[in-house]
Description:
Elements: E1 3-4, H1 11-17, E2 22-23, H2 25-28, E3 36-41, H3 47-58, E4 65-70, H4 82-88, E5 89-90, H5 92-95, E6 100-105, H6 121-134, E7 135-141, H7 143-153, E8 157-172, E9 186-197, H8 199-204, E10 208-210, E11 212-213, E12 221-224, E13 229-232, H9 242-252, H10 278-294
Parallel strand pairs: 1-2, 1-4, 3-4, 3-6, 4-5, 6-7, 7-13
Antiparallel strand pairs: 8-9, 8-11, 10-12, 12-13
Helix pairs in contact: 1-3
Amino acid sequence: MPINVPIQLPARPxxxxxxxxxxxxxxATTQDIRPLNLLLLxxxxxxxxxxxxxxxxxxxxxxxxxxxxxxxxxYKSRNVTMSHLEKFYQTFNDVxxxxxxxxxxxxxxVEHLAFEAVDYWPEISEIMAWSKQxxxxxxxxxxxxxxxxxxxxxxxxQPRDAKISGIYTHDRVEDTHKLMRGINDEFxxxxxxxxxxDFTSLYAHPDLTVLDDSKEAGPLLIAxxxxxxxxxxxxxxxxxxxxxxxxxxxxxxxxxINAPENYFPQNDTTLAPKNRWRxxxxxxxxxxxxxxxxxxxxxxxxxxK
Length: 305
């Protein structure tokens, strides 16, 4: 079903080539059904790439989806042009009087820092506090998941002995949870991080449900029991070549980094990697939009003021 995207957004022609159902503003305003209104806080350095990845997965909704983009006001990204931010992004101050059906907080390359040491932590904290009254459900991705677990539930992160990078097998541990509907008993997911959430505190928390587990990567999906939060510890939005791009980048920096595990065919770095998690990623986003957002959000947000 359609996703409403600005005409000049760079992600648009890419998605149209993939036959993703894109709708223009004029057509969107003539629809009688109520769209889902989402807010995307994009903390990733390559914002245009992340926009495309997330919009692709959000397109598999039974309803029209409107997406507003915001960036941090307290920190300016060096990997995106100011013209792109000015054309397609707002700041939190621009949207804080609005209500949204869903919020997505992306990962960020700041996991080596304590949360309070991150330049924009006060702003992120303000947004997460605001979301309690203004957002039906929030999806937190990678560092965004660690930040959300820390802010909402007091679960800190821990450094890993070595960076985890690659594609890892996960086993579902919750058979009946609505977010796991249609998902295989065993599935693959990309991970790329230097820290983990404190798994002991995570499993022990009474307000959280761990939906899967992996011997190498730990749990990927954690849901709050009130359905207000979904935490994704990996990067299921990644394209087939994203880990390759990161690997080449880290090599260029002179880092002593291993090739992503279980990623290259036959473990041959000269062979192009394949996306083996695409259908799983679509299901996760679809289930979140349906069960945690659409089924729970009020038709008229104004009645909840």
